[in-house]
Amino acid sequence: MKKLKVLYGICGLGNGHTYRQLPVVEHFAHIAEVIIFAHDNSYIVYLEKFKDNPSVKVVEVAIPFYVGDKNGINFSASAESPVNKKNIFQINCAALDRAHKELGKPDLVISDYESVSAQYAYAHDVPLVTIDQQSKYLCGEFPEEVGGFTFKDEIERLHMFFPKVHTRIACSFFKVPQLPKKDTVQLFPPTLKKSVLSMKRNPKNNSIVVYISSAREFGQTPEEIIALCTEQKIGEFHIFLGQETPKIPKEGLRKGINVYTHGDPRFDEVIQECTGIISTAGHSLLSEAMYLGIPVYAIPVSPYEQHMNAYVIDSNGFGISHPKIDKEKLSYFIENIPKFANNISSDTEVLMRGIGQEEIIKFLEKNFGT
Fold it and tell me: Global pTM?
């Protein structure tokens, strides 16, 4: 029987896209010949992950970074972005040439916000499926502006990167009211890591995880974050920061204040035991928190998506949202964790329940014979 041939493109800006696609990529790694187009973080992670799998080849691409603002894509700012100074055309032609030689005409191309794989699909006239979280803005009813941000730039990027697709799939931890006469988008629950699916929760009283993403600029220093957590006399805090080492006070950290860098293997252990999460409002961690029933103090940074995610958390009582970590807000959040947790567990109207990769794989098997 002929082995399925799949080209899979994965955005590498931050950790979110990288790990959201991993459960679906692992499915194809067992049944298909796969080439992965990846860049930045996704390239590093997938190169290591599949180094011993002869069925999976990871190829580096370079993606132009289009800066967005509330009016859409800011082409002038994009032209000045340092990310766009490398030889993008040469890198991508080399990737396309390798796919041509080693894969030929694929049976299916899947992309998570990675446009070079889409170009290969167009060139070979094969089915293109996009799997991301941004596509929900093509079909859903959303506030036009939240926190000073709009989703106009997301819409423009989707139309630029993927003007024609066979199927658009969007993952969302909350239900999306779909508007008539809009783009058809298949909505699924979020994909989830194996460690989350197998996790046996054992919450400790007032154990709080603080996770500040390094993908976007954050308005408080590591020292400020540690100081605010230290001021809370009740509670144990596990603070995950970027690679920059914070300045520790001369007297040291009080008992119950623990500081880690991103990627620390103890992350799953402390998530298993925590009662609440304080985090920037990215899709992946908030999705995991809602699946596990953990209330969130959401701190939205750019873009619109984070502000929308935080709005859903705050307006439905699944936690709170605030532009920064604040002493009074933090106390309020900790005191009300039991109420927020009950709201999550009892909700039947807002949250998208289920395991995204299981539903997506079934959908792909039915429609593409994968």
Answer: 0.92
